[in-house]
Amino acid sequence: MPHMLIIGGSDAGISAALRIKEFNAQTDVTVVVADDYPGFSICGLPFFLSGEVTDWHTLAHHSLEEFEKQGIRLLLNQRAEAIFPETKRVRIISSKGQSHEITYDRLLIATGAESARPPITGLEQTGVFLLRWMMDGFAMQQFMEQRNPRRTVIIGGGYIGLEMADALFHRGQEVTLLEFAPEILTTMDPNLGRLIRTELESRGVRVITDRAVQSIERKYGSLLVHTAAGETSTADMVLVATGVKPSAQLAQTAGIALGVGGAIRVDQTMATNIPDILAAGDCSETWHHILKSNVYMPLGTTAHKQGRVAGENMVGGNREFQGSLGTQVVKVFERIAAGTGLRDIQGAKAGFDPLTVTLTTLDHNSYYSGAKEMTICITGDRRTGCLLGAQIVGHRDSEVAKRIDIIAAALFDGMSVENLCDLDLSYTPPLSSPWDPVQKAAMQWSTTSDTKP
């Protein structure tokens, strides 16, 4: 029976292993896991650290017993040190320093990504944390339990930074958020980022934008975070959440080609340039459904899908990854921000003639109590009327995720903006209106585009 070897026990690697067993239960599958936590939801760490998830064990998608029942062999606390494609061998080293080699018939590299370490001096100081893996979360949790920090500075105003600002506020901490860009949430238009900033500030989170952090030093028992502008924020704990980069060095040293952003170059079957070696997840490129080219877009949902495609193809399938739109959603206190597809700047760079129209409306009929404002940005191509993307900010009860998913589905189908008005969407006064807010925004886009020269 052929042996399928998977390096990496997070979303892509575990999805691949499960799909292999679904496709052919007799296949021999081994997964090399660098830690003790295969198949854990890293996206759940902010909610564990906030105390909203009380038992970290529940972050596991599958138990060890379930893996054993499936016949999936897990090598825990072991790392792949080198790949030898000519002989189809991988050298593995355990946490105790013991080395051995494993042969494979087909290999999947799913080594994920690692936290980006910005050029800030003092990142090694006690009380300074990155948040990428379960052990990072445990280290931060232990520090908070032992030291009881009251003030935290978060460097980075992206999704993790925002979720952690919410999480630490729930723990009673004073939070300062420092962002290099002019506005937080740089994956969305600045006007929507400002709505989320307002939500943060209304809760007492101090938000400072357009500032580059230069250094962190420990002095008089506190951490001092210095910006290039000469400002200093005092903290008991610092979280650095400035993005990730692909963990692709293992692949590169084996002669596997890298592509966009230093990620492993793959085609839509998740194959690399080396026969019988595939890659998936945050270590690899992502086929963009609209751009029809590879990008680097590390997302958990994408990793799961890519892993499933890779796993099927490892055992004789012929499936292609259909691409990502970058669909994302984040909760920040009582606000939800979501986006999918292309923004103006991305659309123009890709050769479209983008137009974005913004509409603020109520999430359901005003005569039913509790109606909340929702802001929707619809982006389309003026030449063709083709839908390109959307962004939404609304209240946590306003079904923002449902509405961004409607647009994501429309994008996958290649619909026009006008086509959104033809969709037969559900309606009841407590939840929507006869014309859903998404359709109202589409109507405004069509009217506005008609008036453009």
Descriptive notes:
With 453 residues, this protein is α/β, with parallel strands linked by helices. It folds into 3 domains: 3-39 and 56-113 and 245-314, FAD/NAD(P)-binding domain, CATH 3.50.50; 128-242, FAD/NAD(P)-binding domain (3-Layer(bba) Sandwich); 334-447, 3-Layer(bba) Sandwich (FAD/NAD(P)-binding domain). It contains 11 helices and 25 strands. The protein has helices spanning 11-23, 45-50, 64-70, 134-147, 159-170, 190-202, 249-253, 300-314, 344-349, 400-412, 437-451, and strands at residues 3-7, 28-32, 72-75, 78-84, 89-94, 99-103, 106-109, 113-115, 128-130, 151-155, 174-178, 206-208, 213-219, 222-227, 232-235, 237-240, 244-246, 277-279, 286-288, 293-295, 328-332, 335-341, 354-362, 373-381, 387-395. A hairpin with a 4-residue loop joins strand 19 (286-288) and strand 20. Helix 1 (11-23) runs parallel beside helix 8 (300-314). The longest helix is centred in the C-terminal third of the chain and has 15 residues, at 300-314. The relative contact order is 0.12. The mean pLDDT is 96.
Strand and helix layout:
Blueprint: E1 3-7, H1 11-23, E2 28-32, H2 45-50, H3 64-70, E3 72-75, E4 78-84, E5 89-94, E6 99-103, E7 106-109, E8 113-115, E9 128-130, H4 134-147, E10 151-155, H5 159-170, E11 174-178, H6 190-202, E12 206-208, E13 213-219, E14 222-227, E15 232-235, E16 237-240, E17 244-246, H7 249-253, E18 277-279, E19 286-288, E20 293-295, H8 300-314, E21 328-332, E22 335-341, H9 344-349, E23 354-362, E24 373-381, E25 387-395, H10 400-412, H11 437-451
Parallel strand pairs: 1-2, 1-7, 2-3, 7-18, 9-16, 10-11, 10-16, 11-12
Antiparallel strand pairs: 4-5, 5-6, 8-17, 13-14, 14-15, 19-20, 21-22, 22-25, 23-24, 24-25
Helix pairs in contact: 1-8
